[in-house]
């Protein structure tokens, strides 16, 4: 984060073209509405939920589409780099004598002070979450901004508190949901080590991250992943060590959805790896054999050749198992993706010493560039995954796309906070000109 102090004159205010007409604050993520004016994205989305008129002109809006104003955002960023003075202008006579449409609370931004003042401009990272589906969700098509203060998502209505190392933290922002498939405290996004981290808060239905093309996810005891509607878990009896008598084996159990022919079935994966898909020729086939020997798929959301499990020798006696999307290295990727379920917050405290030792050894591979858990998370959010551009994650049945940007926030620094405010009132309008005609 960068800070820049802007020394302002006693009659300088933020220019109207850089101010959101709704919040009366500096635009962070400007978008253009149907009326041709620019607004803050999150504020305008909330406005359009209950209004069909322009918040600036009061006229009817032909549509509710919002277009990003990239030129205005770049202009604000350039002016900040040049010192920030270009964002402000001197109050004109029109400001003093023309009644404003803005609420009285926002007029304090235009008040005059007897002494020069300072404004602090802070540039900070901003995470943008855009809902992709389903269509029936109230979040569909909307965008949510996550600042460095973080956010907690779920059906909760009060601030979330979590104890970390005998200290209690409180979420600064809440991302509310109404869907029954989402827990009251479902997931948390926090900012640390210059990254945004996604973490599951022991939710019932889980938080999933889509496996990126070409990426591989390590499969460890307790690891869970999802193809279509089916979820599999790596059993604790899996063996990652090899010797003269035993070979490494990965044991996978299908535990969801309820009623599936594969539910509670255990699959044994050897050092040759495995393929997963709807076609019957796969090592793990999501199909059902009928009486006439015909094989039919049991999950239409799973591709014919959906994913694969590969092995890699970590040391002379230790084998690692990895999950990749797509059946072959150069083949076609799955249609609906392969999803990694984030470990619950409490899962690490429930591991025994042997499991933690194995996890620490295999997690060394997470630092490779093509591992989704790179870089390693901070200790207080162990099990979280650092979000990257174009990531997708799933909470309940709601899918979000991840994008990054940065915003400029206008703050008062210590200098301006020490100034004594002067009572403000609008000067009387100029007297009307008298008609001198007889």
Automatic annotation (TrEMBL):
<dbReference type="InterPro" id="IPR052085">
    <property type="entry name" value="WD-SAM-U-box"/>
</dbReference>
<feature type="domain" description="U-box">
    <location>
        <begin position="13"/>
        <end position="86"/>
    </location>
</feature>
<dbReference type="GO" id="GO:0016567">
    <property type="term" value="P:protein ubiquitination"/>
</dbReference>
<dbReference type="InterPro" id="IPR000253">
    <property type="entry name" value="FHA_dom"/>
</dbReference>
<dbReference type="InterPro" id="IPR008984">
    <property type="entry name" value="SMAD_FHA_dom_sf"/>
</dbReference>
<dbReference type="Pfam" id="PF00498">
    <property type="entry name" value="FHA"/>
</dbReference>
<feature type="domain" description="FHA">
    <location>
        <begin position="274"/>
        <end position="345"/>
    </location>
</feature>
<protein>
    <recommendedName>
        <fullName>RING-type E3 ubiquitin transferase</fullName>
    </recommendedName>
</protein>
<dbReference type="GO" id="GO:0004842">
    <property type="term" value="F:ubiquitin-protein transferase activity"/>
</dbReference>
<dbReference type="InterPro" id="IPR003613">
    <property type="entry name" value="Ubox_domain"/>
</dbReference>
<feature type="domain" description="FHA">
    <location>
        <begin position="151"/>
        <end position="209"/>
    </location>
</feature>
<dbReference type="Pfam" id="PF04564">
    <property type="entry name" value="U-box"/>
</dbReference>
<dbReference type="InterPro" id="IPR013083">
    <property type="entry name" value="Znf_RING/FYVE/PHD"/>
</dbReference>
């Amino acid at each position: 984060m960068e800070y820049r102090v802007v020394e302002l004159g006693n009659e300088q205010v933020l220019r109207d073209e850089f101010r959101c007409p709704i919040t009366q604050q500096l635009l962070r993520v400007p978008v253009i509405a149907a009326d041709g004016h620019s607004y803050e994205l999150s504020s305008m989305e909330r406005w359009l939920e209950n209004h069909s008129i322009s918040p600036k002109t009061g006229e009817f809006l032909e549509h509710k589409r919002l277009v990003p104003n990239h030129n205005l955002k770049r202009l604000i960023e350039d002016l900040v780099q040049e010192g920030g003075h270009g964002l402000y202008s001197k109050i004109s006579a029109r400001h003093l004598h023309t009644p404003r449409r803005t609420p009285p609370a926002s007029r304090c931004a235009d008040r005059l002070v007897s002494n020069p003042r300072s404004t602090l401009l802070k540039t900070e990272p901003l995470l943008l979450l855009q809902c992709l589906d389903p269509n029936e969700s109230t979040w569909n098509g909307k965008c949510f901004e996550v600042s460095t203060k973080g956010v907690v998502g779920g059906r909760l209505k009060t601030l979330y508190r979590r104890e970390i190392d005998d200290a209690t933290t409180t979420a600064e922002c809440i991302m509310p949901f109404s869907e029954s498939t989402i827990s009251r405290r479902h997931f948390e996004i926090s900012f640390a080590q210059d990254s945004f981290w996604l973490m599951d808060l022991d939710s019932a239905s889980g938080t999933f991250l889509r496996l990126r093309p070409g990426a591989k996810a390590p499969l460890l005891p307790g690891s869970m992943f999802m193809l279509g509607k089916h979820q599999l878990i790596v059993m604790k009896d899996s063996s990652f060590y090899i010797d003269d008598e035993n070979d490494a084996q990965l044991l996978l159990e299908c535990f969801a959805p309820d009623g599936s022919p594969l539910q509670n079935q255990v699959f044994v994966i050897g050092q040759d790896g495995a393929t997963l898909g709807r076609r019957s020729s796969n090592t793990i086939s999501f199909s059902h054999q009928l009486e006439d020997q015909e094989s039919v798929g049991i999950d239409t959301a799973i591709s014919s050749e959906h994913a694969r499990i590969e092995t890699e020798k970590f040391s002379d006696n230790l084998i690692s198992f990895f999950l990749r999307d797509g059946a072959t290295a150069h083949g076609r990727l799955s249609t609906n993706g392969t999803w990694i379920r984030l470990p619950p917050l409490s899962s690490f405290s429930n591991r025994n010493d042997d499991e933690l030792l194995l996890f620490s050894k295999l997690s060394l591979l997470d630092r490779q560039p093509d591992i989704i858990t790179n870089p390693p998370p901070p200790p207080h959010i162990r099990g979280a995954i650092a979000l990257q551009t174009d990531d997708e994650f799933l909470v309940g049945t709601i899918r979000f796309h991840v994008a990054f940007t940065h915003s400029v926030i206008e703050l008062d620094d210590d200098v301006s906070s020490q100034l004594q405010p002067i009572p403000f009132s609008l000067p009387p309008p100029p007297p009307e000109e008298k008609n001198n005609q007889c």
